[in-house]
Design a protein that fits this description.
The complex is a heterodimer. Chain A is an alpha+beta fold. Chain A has 20 helices and 23 strands. The chains are: A alpha+beta, B alpha/beta.
Chain lengths: 533, 334
């Protein structure tokens, strides 16, 4: 017997990729077909709907552990994972009964929705008291959602490819999109998918790598084309069988949020798939990412929002044309078809992302410097002859971002991290100086960041925080203002929702400025002066 | 209100009446050392007093110092204050310090655990009015399995490595955990090799205590000698060139912190075995009940949380800060 909990345990017990693949292969060759389908769903972030409130889970777990709720909460902040905390504090079962299958557990969890709280509690406590540690952990993960346990989708498709003999890229394509593990068989999904099922699937996105070498190393400047790198939502617009769909890179169906793009898409021929970027576009100008966010959060977009925050699709690639999968054509050839399509359609909602040729690397560097003026965040460098690959593959597509904006800020609050940073203070809040009405300088929060330091630096900051805590607010600690960090970010815009009056995009720590005291940190005014750049 | 028998000052835990410190962290005249770990037995004091099993280790680490020893249960009086050492079960020689004056009894636990580990003399609960306890693992998330079970897990891991022609590299703190493993692991499986830092301590301990045979890794040790065998090394060797000799290896660690999946992943080690020389949650509470103390002073670890819990449960508890490092930090600084 090698069930899903065994798989999770095996993966957890190694740091080596080949052993993880071996464990996955073992699972995909021995588990029941329905369990396999669920495992694929879980590893590609399709989670069952949550049927119990996590606040209830905490209460029941604390009861079983015979500890007060606050103590459970404290433990959770330190462990950094709810499913794991419950598995740790609930006493280990004495008797071992055969654990239920993955499919059965998921069904039970789904059915919980229809039970009253008392019955839910009874069910959970009963399951908890009869599962061993890993089964308990998996069970809790199924309830709380989010199965990030060190298995990438790539690792999973590789293992399935090894077991079935089907090409890995084909599998990656087959498991895309919005299929429901409850009514999908392993046969349909992997072994012999029906043509009509594939209609609703986007293609796996081809992702660029960050440029990590000198331009000259790319060979001749002439075998590459250059595009702006847009800061919007990467998406595929699909028209098949008289239906239009928009899929985001995160594999979410976002059609409803962009009705004007659906309308434009309905004018396309059946059998068309366009890869591009959804951008805010008002009065003939590209807007900031903040404008897009107003569209994203909504289930349905009203008339006012449509008028106030209009969008376009900046198209840069064509993956399917006249119902043919043309991903294996050369980039230049796909582009010719794309340009023809856009010219023929003549719709203001579909714009071409232009590409440029440069004669030498010097010109490329100049273009890179000017990216911000074009409202782009850098350059895309694409090989003329490259086919459209699956996932992040190095060599043919590079992204070269402009240098980020930076500012020196003071660490003021800290929270413990999650996952591999559990029990370490790694999530920080940063503040800048502002002169208040009385004329005094005070620190005002402007951003949170939790990446950019080395493990060693995190450890050092963690020790500082533990020694310099002023106050505790649940998991958050206010910290003596003493440390200064250089914070980098991609974009900046005025915002009435933020205390500082400014919203920054992708803030992260660039470096620890040990040479600076808090007096040397920047002010909110310094930050605002960057908006007009 | 009567003056407390023990106080925490800038130098350490102090008995004003007897003018003697416990585990002082700054140089003082007289000190009682609970155990030989570096953060509890500091350099620079004038007079050291500790258990005979700690003396050779403390001397090995600190050189030529003025040191005397007292057996467990042996009473000695300083200025009317009666002292005695009692086993703490943390590592070899580790002791609690019992302090009594005019019927008021305080016990300073040092670091301790309850399970008999086969090398440190097992912990004895001492009845007292005030108990100064560590709470390195003072959270309900920490519940240790029996040593026998964990040792079997490690034996199985070693066998698996052997079957795959790999070297099993096990990271463990050089003093305490390393010897606990050496004493308990199944030497029938293969040879136990040790890093110099571990073997130096083994040699000191062998002068008064039998340890199974171990082999020091030297320049002459060949890669082929190591395959199928177990290597015990301090955690600081992880990721260092020293490990190259062990290729192909599988890394593992044995510590209470291995309870957390995140802690294992952060260290990028293959296997984590939950084996600690500190008390877990249930033993911490059991110990406090056993001492029958009403006043509980919580020191290093999750002291705020544990102290709050005790106060809710009818104890008079408060926290004191010490510079004693948590296991994790020590391990990385070896």
């Amino acid at each position: 017997m090698f069930d899903f909990a065994d798989l999770v345990e095996q993966i957890d017990k190694t740091n080596k990729t080949n052993l993880k693949v071996k464990a996955l292969e073992k699972f995909f060759s021995t588990a029941s077909d329905q369990d396999k389908v669920w495992a694929i769903a879980l590893f590609s972030s399709k989670k069952p709907k949550r049927s119990v409130k996590t606040s209830d889970l905490r209460v029941y777990a604390a009861q079983m552990a015979k500890i007060p709720l606050w103590l459970f909460e404290e433990s959770y902040h330190i462990v950094g994972d709810l499913a794991e905390t419950i598995a740790l504090v609930v006493p280990e079962s004495k008797e071992s009964i055969k654990p239920p299958t993955l499919t059965q557990l998921i069904k039970e969890i789904k059915d919980l929705k229809n039970l009253d709280e008392l019955k839910q509690c009874e069910y959970l406590k009963n399951r908890w008291s009869h599962l061993n540690y890993y089964s308990k952990f998996v069970f809790n993960k199924l309830i709380t959602g989010g199965f990030r346990i060190g298995v990438s989708q790539k690792l999973m498709t590789k293992s399935i490819a090894n077991v079935t003999g089907i090409d890995q890229d084909t599998i990656a394509y087959q498991i895309m999109g919005d299929w429901n593990p409850e009514d999908t068989t392993y046969n349909q999904l992997i072994l012999s998918p029906r043509k009509e099922d594939l209609i609703y699937k986007p293609y796996p996105f081809y992702l660029a790598n960050s440029l990590d070498q000198d331009l000259e190393k790319l060979g001749s400047c002439l075998q590459w084309v250059y595009e702006n790198k847009w800061d919007g939502i990467r998406a595929q617009l699909i028209k098949r069988n008289d239906e239009v769909m928009i899929w985001s890179r995160g594999e979410e169906l976002i059609s409803k949020q962009f009705p004007e793009l659906l309308e434009m898409g309905s004018l396309l021929n059946n059998g068309t798939v366009i890869d591009g970027e959804i951008l805010p576009f008002k009065n003939g100008k590209i807007g900031s990412f903040n404008d897009l966010q107003k569209r994203l959060g909504r289930k349905n977009v009203g008339k006012t929002t449509l008028e106030n925050s209009p969008v376009i699709l900046k198209a840069y690639d064509l993956l399917e044309f006249n119902a043919d999968d043309i991903r294996n054509q050369k980039y230049v050839d796909r582009r010719i078809s794309l340009e023809n399509l856009i010219v023929t359609l003549k719709n203001e909602k579909l714009q071409l992302s232009k590409y440029y040729f440069f004669k030498n690397w010097k010109e490329v560097e100049t273009a890179h410097c000017q990216a911000r003026i074009n409202k782009s965040e850098g350059l895309m460098i694409k090989n003329l002859n490259a086919i459209y690959k699956v996932g992040r593959k190095k060599g043919d597509w590079w992204k070269w971002k402009v240098d980020p904006l930076t500012i020196d800020a003071v660490l003021t609050y800290a929270m413990r991290g999650h996952g591999r940073r559990a029990n370490l203070f790694t999530d920080y809040t940063f503040a800048l100086w502002k002169t208040n009405d009385k004329g005094d300088r005070e620190l005002v929060t402007f951003a949170k960041a939790y990446s950019g330091l080395t493990d060693k630096e995190f450890k050092e900051v963690d020790a500082f925080i533990k020694k310099n805590t002023l106050e505790r607010f649940g998991p958050v600690r206010s910290v003596r203002a003493k440390l200064v960090f250089e914070i980098a970010f991609e974009g900046i815009a005025s915002s009435s929702r933020h205390k500082s009056g400014v919203a920054v995009r992708f803030p992260r720590i660039l470096r620890w400025r040990k040479d600076k005291t808090i007096k040397d940190a920047n002010s909110i005014n310094d930050l605002k002066s960057l908006i007009h750049e | 209100m009567k003056k407390p028998l023990l106080v925490f000052n800038q130098n350490g835990i102090y008995c004003p009446k007897a003018k003697i410190y416990m585990d002082a962290w700054r140089p003082v005249n007289k000190v009682i050392i609970s155990h030989a770990h570096a953060d509890h037995s500091k350099f620079g004091h004038q007079h050291y007093l500790t258990h005979p099993n700690s003396v050779p280790i403390v001397k090995h680490r600190l050189g030529n110092i003025n040191i005397e020893s007292k057996d467990w249960g042996e009473k000695f009086t300083i200025n009317g204050v009666q002292f005695s050492l009692h086993p703490a079960g943390h590592i070899i020689g580790s002791s609690q310090v019992r302090v009594e004056y005019k019927g008021d009894v305080w016990v300073y636990s040092g670091d301790y655990k309850r399970e008999d580990d086969g090398i440190s003399t097992p912990f004895e609960p001492i009845k007292c009015n005030t108990f100064i306890t560590e709470c390195t693992f003072g959270l309900p998330a920490f519940n240790w399995k029996k040593q026998e079970i964990v040792i079997n897990e490690i034996n199985d891991y070693w066998k698996e490595c052997k079957a795959n022609n790999q070297t099993a590299v096990l990271f463990a703190y050089s003093l305490g955990k390393a010897q606990r493993l050496i004493v308990n692991l199944d030497s029938e499986i293969g040879k136990i090799y040790t890093h110099g830092a571990v073997e130096n301590l083994n040699e000191v301990i062998r002068t008064y205590k039998n340890l199974p045979k171990t082999h020091r890794i030297t320049r002459e040790t060949k890669k082929e000698d190591l395959i199928g065998n177990l290597v015990i090394a301090p955690p600081s060797t992880h990721g260092s060139p020293w490990l190259k000799k062990m290729v192909p290896y599988v890394t593992s660690s044995s510590s209470g912190w291995m309870t957390f999946r995140g802690a294992r992943r952060r260290r990028a080690i293959d296997r984590g075995f939950v084996l600690s020389d500190h008390v877990d949650w249930k033993d911490l509470i059991q110990t406090i009940e056993d001492t029958e103390a009403k006043n509980i002073v919580c020191t290093h670890g999750y002291k705020d949380i544990f102290s709050k819990y005790l106060n809710e449960n009818g104890y008079n508890s408060f926290i004191e800060n010490t510079p004693f490092q948590e296991e994790e930090t020590i391990e990385n600084n070896v």
